[in-house]
Structure formats: C-alpha cells, structure tokens
Specification:
- Helix 3 links the parallel strand 6 and strand 7.
- The strands form 2 sheets. Strands 2-5-4-3-6-7 form a 6-stranded mixed β-sheet, sandwiched between helices. A two-stranded parallel sheet has the order 1-8.
- The chain folds into 3 domains: 193 residues, Nucleotidyltransferase, domain 5, CATH 3.30.420.10; 93 residues, DNA polymerase, domain 1, CATH 1.10.150; 85 residues, DNA polymerase, domain 1 (Orthogonal Bundle).
- The protein is an alpha/beta fold and 408 residues long.
Length: 408
C-alpha cells in the first residue's frame, strides 16, 4: 500500500520503528501455525495491509500481507509460501478488519483465503469526514500526530529476500492502524455519520469483481492519436503480443514494451524489422531484443483484410453519452443533470462530504439521461439501489431529485 505523502510538520513525531521490532517473514506452515494461534488468542480488530509489485510483475498478485492484533503483535506473511491463509481468518472469527483503501487490498487478500466478515476502511472514513488529505500517512499525521515514512511505497515487493528496511516500512503501515480507526470512529459518531460509514464499509467489502473491459487494448496510452483502422489494428496486435510475453515472463507489460512504442509503430507502419528498429521508441535494448517478434505482430495486422480491421470508435457501452453532448441531443436530460449536480453540490457543502462520495457520478448520469417513468421518489430510489447506491445516499437524494426532475 502506498502510504501517501505528508508535508514536513514540526508537530508530527516520526514513527520510525515498530513497537515489537521487525520480525521475520512467515513463509512456512510451522511458523504460520504459530501466527494462527497468536491471532486467535488476540483481541480486538485486525489491522491489515497488503503489498503488490505493480509496475514490476504481471497482474496484481499480493507479495506480502501485514497483520496486527492486540495480544498477537505484527505478522508479516509471505503469500508465495502460504497461498492458503484461511485458517488465520477462521481463527480471528467475527473480528473487524481495519484497512486503508480496502478496495485495493481486499481482492488480493481474498485470493489467499482472507475474507473479513466486517471491515473499517480508514480512507473511506477520512473521506466521509472531509479530511483534506486521505492518504495513510496524512491520516495518521492528522489523527495521531505521527509521521509515516513513504520511501518504499513503490518498490518491487516480489523481491526475495525482502530487505529489512522494506519490512520495517511494511510493519509500520499496520502499527497504529487500529488507533487511527478508533479516532475516526469517534469522529464519525460525533458527526452523525457512523451509520453512513458502516454502509460504505459493507459496500466496499462486498463489491463484486469488475467485469472485463471490452477491447482492453484501446486503453493503450496515446491510442486516441492513431486515426486510421490499420494503425489501430497494429495497436491491437502489438498489445496482444505484449500481453502474451508479459504473462509468460511474469513481467509488467509496460516493462516489456512501453505504450509509446506501440503507438509509434502504429503510426509508422513499418514493413520490415529494420524499419521498426529505426523507430526511436524501439531503440531500447529490450525492444530490440524482440524486434522480430514485434514485427511479426505488426505484419499480422498489416495483412488483415479490411473487413477485419477494428473500427475507429470502440464498442458502444450501455451508458449515456458524454454530458457535453447532452445539450444538443437531449436538452431535458441536460437540465436534469444540471439540477442533480446543483443538489449534490449543496448536499456536499451541508454535510461536509465530497460530492463523489455522496453519489457515484455514473449512477447520477444514468439516472438523468434515462430516468424511470414515473420518476417519483421511490422510483428514483429503486433505480439508484439498482446501481448499488447505499441507503444513506438514497435517503439524501431521492426526494430532492424527484422534485427537481418534475420542474425541468
């Protein structure tokens, strides 16, 4: 987890060493059994964090799990040696798990059998309390007056053995997480937002995996500058070749071939490996080493018949068009959206909650573009529930939206 950045503050006391020191990484069944016993005998919430190797390895696998519980101390667990950690989840039973930005870590924890029955997300709590900065380091500083280091937030956590400095950083990420939780929980209660927070935490805990994106190759950075279908076919072919190579080697795709190189080839349309090698973006040692394979991918795209070339525009989604076009396409929908935005802005100021946390922008746009008929409060409430809006959000906006829509 990236801890976030805090500016140097003379009132913030640096947190430089875990209270129990830096323990060994647990990677054997025997050592894990001792951790299970300790955490089962511990008390209170379980602080949890996970580290990935984004930018280094293919996918979003977890390479270190950090847990802390009163009476048990901190455990640093190696998912490579311990692919199934479900016994630990069973041992702590119904205990609450405390995470920062839980949506980032819960999928990886679930892959190893760590399925919290309840969560408290300190980042979400900070958002509901309208804290100016919500990174972990900033929240720790604001709530406890302690400073977390950030220098190892983007390292390659798949490295083995992990350096002691990295492990110290990882242990500190859960060192005071429960204390932060307690401060934030008290503030939420005082602000009348405890129930809102509980619904948000359950929402993030039960989020289903995201659906696969259609044409994922279109997310290659710079693809919008490729204006013809043949060039887009080259982007697609190179992207697919890069994915296969990255998956086989367990390397981040960007390290195999940068997006800018894919786009440059799509514009140059080289006919030979020599021509491709002359493209400046292919001047790196890694790109040149596989120049023949990249040219084969380009050749396959160049040989496609016209009918098999991808369209310039990506596949249509079931969502509404870009709001900037609504004024011409559906002026009434545009007025609904303007009214909804004004309501959200007013509620944001009244309740001191960021607008994006009051209602998911996509749900609001879909409602304004194609509202239910009739668009009474309960109809709007049901529509929003169908978009996974929480009850506290529905309670705030449904009546107001219904009245506003009736006037447009």
């Amino acid at each position: 987890m990236s801890s976030g950045v805090t500016q140097v503050d003379p009132d913030v006391v640096p947190l430089t060493e875990p209270a129990d020191g830096v323990g060994d990484v647990v990677s054997t069944p025997q050592a894990f059994a001792r951790v299970v016993d300790a955490f089962g005998a511990g008390s209170g919430p379980v602080a949890a964090d996970a580290e990935r190797a984004s930018g280094y390895r293919y996918g979003q696998s977890t390479y270190l799990v950090q847990l802390r519980r009163a009476g048990a101390g901190t455990a640093l667990l190696d998912p490579i040696g311990l692919p199934d950690m479900s016994r630990l989840a069973d041992a702590v039973g119904p205990a609450e798990w405390v995470l920062h930005a839980a949506s980032q870590d819960l999928p990886g924890l679930a892959e190893h059998g760590l399925l919290p029955p309840r969560v408290f997300d300190t980042e979400l709590a900070a958002r509901l309390l309208n804290l100016p900065r919500v990174g972990l380091a900033a929240v720790v500083a604001e709530t406890l007056g302690l400073g977390l280091a950030k220098e190892h937030s983007a390292v390659d956590w798949s490295t083995r053995p992990l350096p002691t400095d990295w492990l110290r950083y990882a242990a500190l990420d859960v060192e005071v997480l429960v204390e932060v939780r307690d401060v934030l929980a008290a503030r939420l209660e005082e602000a009348g937002k405890a129930e809102w927070a509980a619904q948000e935490f359950e929402h993030v805990r039960t989020l289903p995996p995201p659906a696969p994106r259609p044409d994922p190759w279109r997310r290659t950075s710079g693809t919008h500058t490729v204006k013809n279908r043949r060039g887009l076919a080259v982007v697609r072919s190179l992207w697919e070749a890069r994915e296969r190579n990255a998956r086989e080697r367990d390397v981040s795709p960007g390290r195999v071939l940068p997006d800018r190189a894919i786009v440059a080839a799509a514009k140059a349309l080289p006919r030979t490996a020599g021509q491709l090698a002359a493209v400046p973006e292919f001047a790196t040692k890694g790109a040149r080493r596989r120049i023949t394979a990249w040219q084969r991918a380009i050749d396959a795209a160049l040989a496609l018949p016209e009918v098999e070339l991808p369209p310039v525009r990506g596949p249509r989604t079931d969502g509404p068009p870009q709001p900037r076009t609504w004024g011409d396409r559906d002026p009434v929908a545009a007025r609904r959206l303007q009214a909804a935005r004004e309501i959200i802005a007013e509620l944001s100021e009244t309740h001191a909650v960021p607008a994006e946390n009051l209602l998911q922008p996509d749900a609001m746009r879909r409602l304004c573009w194609s509202p239910p008929a009739p668009a009474g409060p309960e109809d709007i409430a049901d529509f929003l529930r169908g978009r996974r809006a929480r009850e506290w959000q529905v309670d705030l906006v449904a009546d107001r939206f219904a009245r506003a829509f009736a006037d447009v």
